[in-house]
């Protein structure tokens, strides 16, 4: 009987704390609840920072050369950024989210992904072949592995679109039909 009394006391105390805490929560306590199940518990909207740079923007990238400048990214470009930080950052950037990159250990040193002086001269088709087939297949460095088996065609196209956005000097396409990436994704 004494054990039952302790169990009941703990249960009532926990329920009381839950009710008290529910009045002061600013976020949803359970990811599995739908929005109409917690009228009192609402998440506060996040309005600070550069998250919403422009209408229709899916993300942003801080300019590598000018931290005061933020580049808005469309859907495909944001997907390309995700792929870049998963696959390419280790050799094509001076620093990574985890610290220094491996770029200084690779010979010849791969171009930085924002190096427009080098990459703007390559067509989208040429960049697609380099990424899909690897460097040695197109007469470039054998240190560049082929990603054609691990990335889809759309992912490679998204990566190229991201490269074009972060390029310094800025990339200017000569013609709308030359080397274009044609897809039907929402923009």
What does this protein look like?
The chain has 187 residues and is mainly alpha-helical. The chain contains 5 helices and 4 strands. The protein has a two-stranded antiparallel ribbon with strand order 1-2. A two-stranded antiparallel ribbon has the order 3-4. The chain starts with a helix and ends in a 21-residue tail after the last helix. The model is unreliable at 31-53 and 176-180 (pLDDT under 50).
Tally of discrete structural domains: 2
N-to-C terminal Cα separation, in Å? 66 Å
Radius of gyration from the CA trace? 25 Å
Number of helices: 5
Mean pLDDT: 78
Shape: elongated
Biggest sheet, open or closed, and with what strands and sense?
2 strands, antiparallel
Percentage beta strand: 5-15%
Label the CATH architecture of the largest domain. Answer: Orthogonal Bundle
Index terms:
187 residues; Cytochrome Bc1 Complex, Chain D, domain 2; single chain; two-stranded antiparallel sheet; mainly alpha; 6% strand; two-stranded antiparallel ribbon
How are the SSEs ordered, and which strands pair?
Blueprint: H1 2-22, E1 59-62, E2 70-73, H2 75-92, E3 95-96, E4 99-100, H3 116-119, H4 124-133, H5 153-166
Antiparallel strand pairs: 1-2, 3-4
Helix pairs in contact: 2-5, 4-5
Summarize it.
The protein is mostly helical and about 190 residues long. The chain contains 5 helices and 4 strands; from the N terminus they run αββαββααα.
